[in-house]
Write a structure and sequence with these properties.
Blueprint (H helix, E strand, L loop, with lengths): L6 E3 L6 E3 L9 E2 L2 E2 L1 E3 L9 H5 L1 E6 L2 E6 L12 E7 L6 E5 L7 E5 L6 E6 L3 E4 L2
Antiparallel strand pairs: 1-2, 1-5, 3-4, 6-7, 7-10, 8-9, 8-11, 11-12
The protein binds fe (ii) ion.
């Protein structure tokens, strides 16, 4: 059974989908089961430093940067989006990114906390703890 906000990728055509309502069926694309993208949370060798979102509280929200070492933003390797969720997962804000842009997002909100995740086109889905 899928869960809301899970992401799945087709390893044949590259489609990535997000679950907005859960169901029992298996997600299939190009005739094959889609890969469930598991969120990485711990530093894996040196990859974590460039992928785990760094979240800083500001006067009117949060400043979010991808990586304590900025992630590359080249045509071949880049952050596809940054997403901020309320801890209860009732509110979602996503910023799509493109090569040469900065891997960061400013979130205006009166909330006390956010759960952030980002998707690297090569290294997958990463989140704050
Ligand atoms: Fe990456």
């Amino acid at each position: 059974m899928t869960k809301i906000l899970e992401m799945y990728k087709c390893n044949i055509c590259g489609n990535i989908v997000e679950v907005v309502a859960s169901g029992y069926g298996e997600l299939v694309c190009c005739g094959e089961p889609m890969e469930h993208l598991i969120e990485h949370t711990k530093e894996e060798e040196m990859l974590g430093e460039k992928h785990i979102p760094v979240v800083t509280k500001t006067d009117n929200g949060f400043e979010i940067k991808v990586g304590s070492i900025p992630h590359p933003m080249t045509d071949e390797h880049y952050i596809m989006f940054i997403e901020a969720n309320s801890p209860d997962k009732r509110y979602v804000k996503r910023k799509y990114l493109y090569p040469s842009e900065e891997p960061e997002m400013n979130l205006k909100c009166a909330c006390d906390d956010v759960v952030v995740r980002e998707l690297c086109n090569i290294h997958g889905l990463w989140t704050t703890d």
